[in-house]
Amino acid sequence: MAQRKFLTLTEVNNLMSAARNKQTGIRDSCLILLAFRHGFRISELLNLRYHDLEMIEGRINIRRLKNGFSTVHPLMSDECKAIMEWNQVRAQWKPAVDPQIVFISQRGTQLSRGQAWRIIRQAGELAGTATHTHPHMLRHACGYELAERGTDTRLIQDYLGHRNIRHTVRYTASNAARFVGMWERNGLVIKDLLINNQVKDETIGAKLFLILKRKIRFCNALY
């Protein structure tokens, strides 16, 4: 069986809760929240600068890599709270790099990709996630969760910065909720299957046969 490439919303929440129990938990849970909420690639997130954050306006500037579309996302209140908590801890770690870099190590250096991978893998282990957790699963989790909420495919494409919509349709293709109500909206539900608001005991095939039989008799009567 192929390994699942994304996390569910419940798993993301469990990941953040598990991360907070570590010594570096405030930083790690903030990193996970931003990675998920904005569908960051890990390199994009590690290059996040404070001038990308407009806390008062409630905006975050997303600078996409891999020739993706850069854009501006809303910054939610829980994110602002997580960032402010992290800022208090970060100040104690005495940054030794560009002061604009948001995520740093306890030594004050910019977090590396390897360190970020370990943070998320260890959080997954603590949370008891059934799959091997890695950073890109949070980007996929963002796409799948937006699709699950019925978000338009083009809007998801813009949100994740995809230049080619083929990279986006993977999220909507597995969303069964988009088909809910389709039969009703198009008048394709066979009302004859319901009699006095109760379904008869016959199988669906038998019901269809009886409906067609009645319609044939009606047509024969006309001629």
Distance between the termini: 58 Å
Number of strands: 5
Into which percentage range does the β-strand content fall? Answer: 5-15%
Name the helicity range.
40-55%
Radius of gyration (CA) equals 25 Å
Poorly predicted segments: 193-197
Classification by helices and strands: mainly alpha
The ordered string of helix (H) and strand (E) elements is HHHEEEHHHHHHEEH
The domain tally reads 2
Q: Could you please say which CATH topology of the largest domain applies here?
A: hpI Integrase, Chain A
How many helices does DSSP assign?
Answer: 10
How many strands, what sense, and barrel or not for the largest sheet?
A: 3 strands, antiparallel
The geometry reads as: globular
InterPro entries: DNA_brk_join_enz, Integrase-like_cat_sf, Integrase_catalytic, Tyrosine_recombinase_XerCD
Protein name: Tyrosine-type recombinase/integrase
Family: Belongs to the 'phage' integrase family.
Keywords: DNA integration, DNA recombination, Fimbrium biogenesis, Transcription, Transcription regulation
